[in-house]
Specification:
With about 375 residues, the chain is of the alpha/beta class. It is built from 16 helices and eleven strands.
Length: about 375
């Protein structure tokens, strides 16, 4: 166990470096805060990221640190500047976050989700595409779509996503200003009337799981219409978007046939949402090597990861690279880890870690764990 004197020395060392900012609103972050950590309120963490949005390793770290903090980095600030300068009367702009494994793409997206929330956007967030297409568990339920021939439904995954969407947009949905444009008939006894609140449509999809995939499809259509009609501004965020275009999934039909991504109803619904046929919104996606199997990771560039189909689907888009830590970011992160007692040992330890981790945020975090 670390002695009190050594623990005190670590804290004094970390306090010599400024690694926190008291500015908790992403809308007010600027270049002065680059490399600094800001705290996110516990209730907001539960609302925005309770069903996904942070990497699993980061979530474990927040429990250890007893707080949730996000570092302000240049790619997120660049995105925020682009969003603030957007002409929302024109078709949606599309952005692709890319970079090597562990560089912080998902964390940058999490920062942008917080920004979108503070700016009053309706958030449409897919935490990780591969959860649908590549993570197969005993609970995975799959069935043929009753309304779209040739497609398969993932009703439990769709219902879980609807609950995620509901939690992230509580205030906007409860206002009652977002309503359906047409009537939806689900069965002889169940229907959603035209002019009903979107919340009513959501509740049906959550409680009646067999209809959840169709509810998602119609909900996304309504969101495009509402945004174009200036009823809301929509922020679409999809992590691991290139997973939609990898030729194979781990889903199998009863006859053992492999299901292709384009045969999954959830995939087709979200691909429709990322088409530039609506306005008053934007789309931010990540192209991530972890979204596809290990044997397809020769490059982290979007043109490689998205394949020809995905690249053409998003084109034109604005690429934003998420790089390794800069010198300032690494020093700030090391000071934060010392403050949380995640990093211990003499100051010289950081010099070695800087080289062994190559300033990769994930590798640095992992290497500090046993120290």
């Amino acid at each position: 166990m670390m002695s009190r004197s050594w623990r005190h020395l670590c804290r004094r060392y970390s306090q010599a470096v400024t690694f926190r900012t008291t500015e908790s609103s992403p809308a007010l972050h600027n270049e002065k805060q680059i490399g600094l950590f800001y705290s996110v309120d516990k209730d907001l963490v539960k609302q925005l990221y309770g069903h996904g949005g942070f990497p699993r390793s980061f979530m474990k770290q927040t429990k250890t640190f007893t707080e949730t903090t996000i570092m302000v980095r240049q790619p997120a600030l660049d995105m925020m500047d682009c969003i603030k300068a957007t002409d929302f009367d024109k078709p949606i702009n599309k952005y692709v976050l890319y970079g090597e494994k562990g560089a912080g793409k998902s964390m940058t997206l999490a920062h942008l989700l917080h920004f979108a929330h503070t700016e009053g956007f309706l958030i449409v967030h897919v935490p990780w595409v591969s959860e649908w297409l590549r993570r197969v568990t005993r609970m995975k339920e799959m069935s043929n779509s009753p309304t779209r021939e040739g497609l398969v439904d993932l009703p439990l995954d769709a219902a879980a996503w609807l609950l995620h969407f509901k939690n992230q947009n509580q205030a906007l949905l409860k206002s009652g200003n977002l309503t359906t444009s047409e009537q939806y008939v689900w069965s002889k006894r169940e229907r959603t009337a035209a002019g009903a609140a979107l919340l009513e449509l959501l509740e049906l999809g959550i409680s009646r799981v067999k209809f959840s995939c169709d509810v998602v499809h119609n909900l996304l259509r309504e969101i495009k219409r509402l945004s174009s009609a200036k009823q809301c501004k929509t922020f679409v965020a999809i992590d691991g978007f290139n997973g939609f275009f990898y030729p194979l999934t781990r889903l199998r039909t009863p006859t053992k046939r492999t299901v292709k991504p384009e045969e999954v109803s959830l995939a087709t619904s979200f691909l429709e949402l990322t088409k530039p046929d609506w306005n008053n919104g934007l789309v931010v996606v990540t192209a991530d090597q972890l979204a596809v199997p290990d044997d397809h990771q020769e490059s982290f560039l979007p043109k490689y990861l998205l394949y020809k189909q995905g690249f053409e689907h998003l084109d034109p888009f604005i690429p934003i690279e998420v790089t390794r830590y800069t010198e300032k970011e690494f020093t700030s992160c090391a000071a934060y880890y010392r403050d949380r007692l995640w990093l211990r040992g003499p100051p010289e330890t950081e010099t070695e870690l800087k080289f062994t981790s190559a300033c990769n945020p994930y590798r640095f975090m992992e290497q500090c764990a046993p120290l």
